[in-house]
Write a structure and sequence with these properties.
- Strands 8, 9, 10, 11, 12, 13, 14, 15 and 16 form a 9-stranded mixed β-sheet that branches.
- 28% of the residues lie in helices and 28% in strands.
- 43% of the residues are buried.
- It has 2 domains: 119 residues, D-amino Acid Aminotransferase, Chain A, domain 1 (2-Layer Sandwich), CATH 3.30.470; 159 residues, D-amino Acid Aminotransferase, Chain A, domain 2.
- The longest helix has 15 residues.
- It is an alpha+beta fold.
- Helix 2 packs across helix 3.
- It has 9 helices and 17 strands.
- The structure holds pyridoxal-5'-phosphate.
- The site of pyridoxal-5'-phosphate (PLP) has 14 residues, from helix 6 and strand 14.
């Protein structure tokens, strides 16, 4: 049994997460037809009260992911944002990870489904640095795995669909078994796309580079935040596809994601990078970590206070 024993929000009600039960005949359990999000609430500097970072953007992406699968979520964005605040308050958390999940319950067993009840849950739990405190400070080791990032036509790559995380699972499992922290996936053409659950940036000669919007990546909300912070700080960013070798001769690299925040990469495959954290990472990482805790001029725009 999971050690998470919090209260969850399920279809409009608050109940212990252990009581949220999924039918063995759930369409999503069989075919991976769920959509989900990962969001963080941070204790705000000064007030000590919680604030959810970019809540609306995450809920928008959840609804768009559902739309891609043709799932009609019976809650609108305002309901979902309110429900998130409600469940955090019910747990008396000021800082936590938030996991909304929409799935199809039992009903039609054929692949196309039809009329299966749509279940909406928001779970919360306390979760520290996803890639470890040491990783956040000093950087992690990544391996370019042979698992390939799905192509736009094989799955809905823009949508955060449960079933397509099997590739991330395989890649992450492989590198963990080798004692390596995170897996980087290349796309079908051999360009670097992203890590198993994070977007990826490299830095060279004072400028950043990351895969462009049209690449095989999830449009990360942290990636978007970092792009805007880089602009604020006058750091040039090139949105361009790049290959494995660019990672070998970059000055620095980092991953971005709600769970991983901004984690430096210290080693790629069998090579140490010249700096970790590098000079750009040293500017952007504290800016991000201060921003999510309310210490930044953009905080008012992006943080929903409890
Ligand atoms: C495959 C993948 N890429 C990138 C990200 C980063 O997205 P975000 O910054 O919105 O958390 C995630 C996390 O959701 C992910 O699963």
């Amino acid at each position: 049994m999971t050690s998470i024993q919090t209260l969850a929000w399920l279809n409009g009600e608050i109940l212990p997460v252990q009581e949220v039960r999924v039918s063995a005949l759930s369409h999503t359990l069989h075919y991976g037809t769920g959509v989900f999000e990962g969001i963080r609430c941070y204790r705000q500097n000064g007030s000590g009260r919680g604030g959810v970072f970019r809540l609306r953007a995450h809920m928008e992406r959840l609804l768009e992911s559902a739309c891609v699968l043709g799932i009609n979520v019976p809650w609108n964005i305002d309901h979902l944002c309110d429900a998130t605040l409600e469940v955090i308050r019910a747990n008396d958390f000021q800082e936590c990870y938030i996991r909304p999940l929409v799935w199809l319950d039992e009903g039609e067993m054929g692949l196309a489904g039809g009329g299966n009840p749509v279940m909406t849950m928001i779970a919360v739990w306390e979760w520290g640095a996803y890639l470890g405190d040491d990783g956040l400070r000093n950087g992690i080791h990544c391996l370019m795995t042979s698992y390939e990032r799905s192509t736009p036509n094989s799955v809905a790559i823009r949508a955060k669909v449960t079933g397509q995380y099997v590739t991330s699972f395989m890649a992450k499992r492989q590198v963990k078994a080798l004692g390596i922290d995170e897996a980087i996936l290349l796309d079908r053409d051999g360009f670097v796309s992203e890590a198993s659950g994070e977007n990826l940036f490299i830095g060279k000669d004072g400028a950043l580079m990351t895969a462009p919007d049209e690449a095989a990546i999830l449009h990360g909300i942290t990636r978007d935040t970092i792009l805007q912070l880089a602009q604020d700080y006058g750091i040039p960013v090139e949105l361009r596809r790049f290959g494995r070798s660019s990672m070998y001769y970059c000055d620095e690299a980092f991953l971005t994601g709600t769970a991983a925040e901004l984690t430096p990469i210290r080693r790629v495959d069998d090579r140490d990078l010249p700096t970790s954290p590098g000079p750009i990472t040293k500017k952007l990482q504290p800016a991000y970590l201060n921003l999510v805790r309310g210490d930044h001029e953009r905080a008012a725009e992006w943080i929903t206070k409890l």
